[in-house]
Specification:
Rossmann fold, 13 strands, 5-stranded parallel β-sheet, globular
Length: about 475
């Protein structure tokens, strides 16, 4: 039995529910997670003291996967909003260090590099983002671009800040500097052997920006230190680390196969690296290696875009899959990244025409390409390597992904938003019923009666509970 403790970044289903589902694909894993009520959300901070006490009280834990933002700030959203100073935050991390020093556990940790959203939506940002978000993004982008162009690091006075009030700009840059200094402190802890693996995540990236600049500096500071990674992504990284920890030294070989092999150098939305780089980076972080199909354990089918990645809810449409789908004779799984946050209906139609469950090791199509890839890879590797595979949990995980990524995100979400429907369980049940029936047939299950809730009281994410 392998005992695993996970402190997720917050209480969203993909952060709290998905690690449980993946770990339990192997009955020989026993996963421990803090009570849901202790975790942060978009409106409240995590109960940091209780999280630390919970971790301290665990015994005989083999693996610890920890989102450091949950302890430092109270969650991912809180990391952008918190007004706590550097020393207060560092004191929490020092307490965490003391706890981890007492554990005989392998620790896999990640911290986010604070994102810069190119919009005026303040749902996950400070209040002033509703008016100045786009201007702050442009300021960050242009300052970094000028620095790169002229190879000079003091250009802030030469760039017009776009009428951003000085007090707001000062608050924003102060918050960034604080978070960056905390990330540098994590490198010192890695040097001391506190972490087996440490990942800094780049969330919502562009070609230039303060976050990109910080990533470059962290990479430079990490030179020569084993198992520190700078990765594009965020929410999927604990899943990748879970896979890395569980399948250490198993040398799983994964062969990527692309539906549009001629366009793998294109860049997905919200990322700063090509599709090919994203795929190979996610495979590496999960503890596997990229392989040719003749020599692989698993085939990864990547349904990638030909022109521009679609985004259905934003009315950005990319032509869907229109070829013959030939499934491999080897174990395979699917990362559907044609759209950002939502399945390709054409691909699903082609998949469901076949006896796809033979050699099937999973499907994913949620949010960014990194999110989709990281979670699909983690689940496939864990199930493939399971000492005692849990087929029921595998089916529950796949039904959840198809109901969320295909039924809801690609079809129902846009419909109920456009009709100005409320976040009503009755409405969602009615709209999801036809998709449930299709999945009952495809997975040979009866009376599939999922429960649907909106944990953050918004359309973006849905929690699906299958008994």
């Amino acid at each position: 039995m392998t005992n695993i403790a996970v402190i997720p970044i917050d209480n969203r289903p993909v952060c709290y529910q998905l690690p449980l589902q993946i770990a339990e694909l192997d009955r020989k894993n026993k996963i421990f997670m803090p009570d849901f009520s202790l975790m942060g959300s978009n409106k409240k901070n995590a109960d940091i003291e209780s999280l630390l006490n919970w971790l301290e009280g665990l015994n005989n834990i083999d693996i610890i996967v920890i989102a450091l933002d949950a302890i430092a700030y109270g969650g991912l959203v809180s990391s952008r909003k918190s007004q706590d100073d550097y020393f207060e935050i560092k004191s929490r991390i020092e307490r965490l260090k003391e706890i981890l020093n007492k554990k005989n556990s392998r620790v896999y940790a990640f911290s986010s590099i604070m994102r810069i959203s190119n919009n005026n939506i303040n749902d996950e940002e400070k209040e002033y983002w509703s008016e100045y978000g786009t201007k702050i993004f442009e300021y960050s982008y242009n300052i970094h671009k000028l620095e790169q162009t002229f190879k000079h690091t003091d250009l802030t006075s030469k760039y017009n800040a776009g009428n951003i009030p000085p007090d707001i700009l000062n608050d924003y840059t102060k918050t960034r500097k604080r978070n960056f200094e905390i990330n540098k402190y994590y490198i010192e802890l890695k040097k001391q052997g506190i972490f087996d693996t440490l990942v800094f995540s780049k969330d919502d990236c562009a070609e230039f920006g303060f976050n990109v600049k910080e990533a470059t500096e962290l990479k430079e500071l990490s030179k020569g230190i084993k198992n520190i990674y700078i990765k594009t992504g965020a929410d999927e990284i604990p899943l990748s680390l879970l896979s890395r920890a569980l399948n250490k030294d198993k040398n799983i070989k994964i062969a990527p196969v692309y539906t549009n092999p001629d366009t793998i150098d294109k860049i997905s939305k919200y990322e700063d690296i090509s599709v090919k780089e994203s795929v190979e980076s996610q495979i590496e972080l999960a503890g596997a290696v990229v392989s040719e199909i003749d020599n692989c354990n698993l085939v990864l089918i990547v349904n990638n875009f030909k022109n521009e990645q679609g985004e259905l809810v934003m009315n950005v449409y990319e032509p869907g899959f229109n070829k013959e789908l030939i499934l491999p004779c080897k174990p395979y799984f699917i990362a559907d990244i044609l759209n950002a946050n939502g399945a390709d209906n054409n691909f699903i139609e082609a998949l469901f025409k076949q006896d796809f469950l033979k050699n099937f090791y999973g499907y994913s199509a949620w949010n960014t390409s990194g999110n989709t890839l990281g979670s699909a890879i983690a689940a496939a590797i864990t199930y493939f390597c399971a000492g005692e595979a849990n087929k029921q949990m595998f089916y529950n995980l796949q039904l959840t992904r198809f109901l969320d990524d295909w039924a809801y995100q690609a079809n129902v979400r846009g419909k109920i938003r456009s009709c100005n429907e409320n976040l009503s369980n009755d409405v969602i049940k009615k709209e999801m019923k036809n998709f449930e029936q299709i999945l009952e047939e495809k997975f040979s299950v009866q009376n599939l009666e999922p429960a649907y809730t909106f944990p953050w009281n918004r359309f973006f994410e849905i929690k699906i509970s299958i008994s």
